[in-house]
Fold Glycoside hydrolase family 1 protein.
Amino acid sequence: MYMFKEGFLWGGATAANQFEGGWNADGKGVSISDMCTNGSRDEAKWFTQAIHADRLYPSHEASDFYHHYKEDIALLGEMGYKCFRLSIAWSRIFPTGMEETPNEAGLQFYDRVFDECIRYGIEPLVTISHYEMPFELARKNNGWLSRETIGCYVRYAEAILDRYHDKVKYWITFNEINCAQMLMGDIVATSMIRDFEGPIDTIRRTEQDRYQALHHQFVASARTVKYAHENYPECKMGNMTAFLAAYPGTCNPTDILTAQRFMQDDNWYCNDVQIKGEYPYFAERLWKEHQVSLSIEDGDLNILKEGTVDFTSFSYYMSVCVGESGEENSIGGNLTNGKKNPYLKASDWGWQIDPEGLRYALNETYDRYRIPVMVVENGLGAFDEIVDGRVHDIYRIDYMREHIRQMELATEDGVDLMGYTCWGCIDLVSATTGEMRKRYGQIFVDKYDDGTGSLERIRKDSFYWYQKVICSNGKELD
């Protein structure tokens, strides 16, 4: 039975640091992403403390949305988008993160972007912080390890809420906030990069640092949600995690418990705080296992209770198997590694493709929280080739079709699903490697790993397919 509700938010998602470019335009400050070089699957990205002339920094131009936003939003409008998820570059609004007043030129840029969205009937969904912060703030405060960063974030969040509340209804406080506790590349999770220069995959922080930094992010998020609820009740505030579906490698009870622990620690820990307003019952066990002793100041737990979100969202790309027994071959992924599932195929980058896992993720999430859910990232990173002026990405169409079918089944199960924004709707820089060749979009951008390219936009076959899907509200998938 066809189940997508009227007003379903079909669209796509991007991130400023991977898409926007204009890294030093109109008063924008340097962000931590602007200090990251390119890399590949074989060569690591580097973080540097200064811009080196002989290195390529992909975020400096990226896909150059800063100068192509009218063209890009017009293309999204042509596809019929109902929703465009994008992030605001913190350092475009507060160049060092420590100013008392925002950069007006930066605010005006997003005014123009949101006005274009409104022109095409596209609902903006804004991520306030998507894996970046001003470099000077990170260097001064050692990122989220300092409580001072909470106040800087809240000042930034309040400034953009004050400015755009009448243009933006849907907000997410942090992108994939659970990365802070699991990801070894701490630069994207907590921005803790003081005095570090070297390959990003060699950055290491203690579990104590990561969980403490995450607590500060929880407080910052709750204060922002509380401010929005009190001042702009028409705004809907959400959280976001990277959903990591974990299956037991075998029916061995030990594997079952391992998978349960994986789901608790990597999925429910952050969600419980932001949705229920309190640390979960298993938090004490988790802290003990990681030898963590949180510094929680007076009032922190109250603000967590007062700043719970209106909806929850997640990214979903893959699933993994976990456990002591069973398949021993490891598989890579977006945020973590696990064991290979013999029933699944994998992408060009080795990520296991599991559409049914999305139905599982939606049901598990909605069963636990009973608030509206949105899939705000999902997509296939692949090598795309231009043949006779076209990109025939049937593999991407197949991937999206199967995941959308599972979303429909989840709504039939009873899940309150608000929308779907596929990742990288217009080709952008990969966050993990800095590559352009790992393409996700329905729109090809003529830009390559060496920084060359005309930046021309080309509609892929998936552009026309997704256009039909949106126009039919999900009825036409073939």
Summary: The CA atoms of residues 245 and 360 lie 8 Å apart.
